[in-house]
Amino acid sequence: MIDRDEDITVLREIPFSVDSESLQRLLRIRPGSQEAYNLDKMADFAREFGKPKAIYRTVFIDGSVEDSISVGGVVFKSALLSRKLESVGRVLPFVVTSGRELEEYPLDRRDFLEAFLWDSVKEYVLHEAVEFFRKEASRRNLVERLVWMSPGSGDAEIWPLQQQKELFSLIGNVKEEIGVELKESFLMIPTKSISGIAFQSEKDYRSCMVCRRVNCHYRSAPFDRKLRDSLE
Asked: What percent of the chain is modeled with pLDDT above 90?
């Protein structure tokens, strides 16, 4: 289901799949084991009750000054974001979530392995939702290569997590539309949610490229020292 209200688009009940066999291989779980059985049960729950969602807004850039950029009247402080958007006229601030429905799974939080498996299932659902958002937003906005930056992703000084507040204010009533709540800590509930500013780019970009963190399970691109050093 897709709702549009002027410049805001809400994607509800995003289609997704959970490939149990792929998850087993990714998590190195032995087929036929108790862990594999538990993972299958979790995947079945996600398929039946999961309703991942997304919201994004089409906004134009007002202008930039040194390490800050104004988007739709909201100022963001990030030298890299300002640089990435210097030749971009239109951006898509967004939030994508695996959905509050998955928080209803009867999880035994004392069982750390079970908690890890369920976390992995929700991460899988979020990944599916993000890919749907990427394709749908690209199609609707005639964008060939859609990339994004997220507050707090990568090193903290790249784009401070605290600017989640400004990002949410730019998008609108995110909690009412897709159930994602921004806490005082600037983290999101549900935790399997991602926010950011998406934009067209000739070159690929991922926050991982400027993050020095090693052995990160979620790294999607190698560290680019030249790009990182250019920010200092």
From this structure: 68
pTM: 0.86
CB neighbours of residue 228 within 10 Å = 17
Alpha helices by DSSP H, listed for 28-104, are 34-49, 79-84
Segment 14-45, tens digit of pLDDT:
999 999 999 999 999 999 999 999 999 999 99
Tell which residue, 167, 213, 203, has the closest CA to residue 186.
167
Q: Which amino acid is at 126?
A: L
Asked whether the beta carbons of 98 and 106 are under 8 A apart, the reply is no
Domains and CATH numbers, the chain: 2-204 (3.40.109.40)
Helices within 58-147 (DSSP H only): 79-84, 112-141
Question: Rounded to an integer, what distance in angstroms lies between the CA atom of residue 45 and that of residue 59?
Answer: 37
**Contact of 195 with 164, CB cutoff 8 Å:** yes
